[in-house]
């Protein structure tokens, strides 16, 4: 991918691959994100937190932002802190990794492609 534009990518999933209740979906997303990172893209994962997890982390070269819990994560996506975070961080594309309950990302992502 020489000469191609490096993208700022935001991925949204309800948990990351370090979470105690992780599963196949998290490892599948991890593989996709690691490959995108290998192409030089900047990757941020927005997901739920869990006991003992830090709010921000660097996991396998991917920035991880955790908010809420498995039970409240979707509600956090509609709040002011997330909208403020999106305004202050320019993403070229958002990957909405749907798992059970939709995030309705196109409704709050503004003009960023989902």
TrEMBL record:
<feature type="domain" description="Glycosyltransferase subfamily 4-like N-terminal">
    <location>
        <begin position="23"/>
        <end position="94"/>
    </location>
</feature>
<protein>
    <submittedName>
        <fullName>Glycosyltransferase family 1 protein</fullName>
    </submittedName>
</protein>
<dbReference type="Pfam" id="PF13439">
    <property type="entry name" value="Glyco_transf_4"/>
</dbReference>
<dbReference type="InterPro" id="IPR028098">
    <property type="entry name" value="Glyco_trans_4-like_N"/>
</dbReference>
């Amino acid at each position: 991918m020489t000469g191609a534009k490096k993208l700022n990518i935001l991925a949204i999933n309800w948990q990351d691959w370090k979470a105690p209740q992780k599963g196949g979906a998290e490892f599948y997303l991890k593989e996709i994100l690691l490959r995108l990172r290998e192409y030089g893209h900047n990757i941020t994962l927005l997901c739920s937190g869990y006991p003992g997890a830090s709010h921000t982390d660097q996991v396998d070269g991917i920035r991880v932002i955790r908010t809420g819990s498995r039970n409240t994560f979707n509600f956090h996506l509609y709040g002011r802190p997330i909208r403020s975070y999106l305004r202050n961080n320019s993403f070229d594309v958002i990957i909405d990794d749907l798992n059970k309950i939709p995030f309705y990302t196109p409704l709050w992502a503004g003009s960023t492609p989902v």
